[in-house]
Automatic annotation (TrEMBL):
UniProt subcellular location: Cytoplasm
Protein name: Homoserine O-acetyltransferase
Site-annotated residues for Important for substrate specificity: S192
One Pfam family from the record: HTS
Substrates-to-products reaction catalysed: L-homoserine + acetyl-CoA = O-acetyl-L-homoserine + CoA
Pathway(s) per entry: Amino-acid biosynthesis; L-methionine biosynthesis via de novo pathway; O-acetyl-L-homoserine from L-homoserine: step 1/1
Single GO MF annotation: homoserine O-acetyltransferase activity
Major subcellular location class: cytoplasm
Gene Ontology, cellular component aspect: cytoplasm
NCBIfam families named among the record's database cross-references: metA
Entry EC number(s): 2.3.1.31
Record bears the keyword GTP-binding: no
Amino acid sequence: MPVTLPDNLPAIEILKKENIFVMSQLRAKEQDIRPLKVLILNLMPIKIAAETDLVRLLSNSPLQIEVDFLKLSGHQSKNTPIEHMDAFYKEFHEVKDQNYDGLIVTGAPVEMMEYEEVSYWDEVASVFDWAKVHVTSTFYICWAAQAALYRFYGVKKHLLPEKTFGVFKHTINDRSFPLFRGFDDEFYAPHSRHTEVRKEDIEKHKDLKILSESDEAGVYIVVGRGGREFYVTGHSEYSLYTLHNEYQRDKEKGAEIDIPKHYYRHDNPAEKPISRWTGHGNLLFNNWMNYYLYQETPYDLSQIEMLGNIQLPAEKE
């Protein structure tokens, strides 16, 4: 089944060339089913690339999904045309009275700043608070994961001695958790960050559970409220060349940046990157949509506000 997108969104033509089924809003209105409604707060600097990466994963599902894109009114994107933002993105005041099955909040290039120093912190914190009531399950990525853990639990981030940059091996702490259905015992995921959240800080909170970790990259996936929130410190949504583009961008800026680890064939930037994470990235998003949106959300979206915590698998009869 397709993802329903705003008419003329650039990602539509890109994904059609990859034989990925996407549907315009006009055609979707002719179908008599309720799609899952997913809101994406895109804080990435190159917004069109982030849109395409996420839609590619959302579309690899038998579920029909209707996507809205959200922007912050207090922040003007420097790398995306204003015409694109005006055409395809809504502001928070336009959606705050609505409910959504899912929310995805991307990373942002502000991790070296204290949260309160970020110009749009107050607005993004308001979105986080709103999602606890108006969204069945929220998927926080990278900086957003750290920021939401700080907002809800006071978990602090810590500066790393060097950037965690590359594709790293991970393990699963609870194989019974539905998010990992179909996963191998070990799997890979990209990371690109200068800061971390620490295991000992998270374990102080009984409402949080660490689901996946990496010997090299640390805490990877944390769940809150049984699945109402997922905090994912890496980037399973990245396409094959996203890390390469980040590496080249930083080199061109003259920044001190190491070659992404476990990424290029023979660790040589002149050679093609190795795809190690695509299968598990698709599984991660498919399982989230199936088990924590489709199987948990009420048909009447107005009932989301009455939902409590999603029961953990061990608690289900």
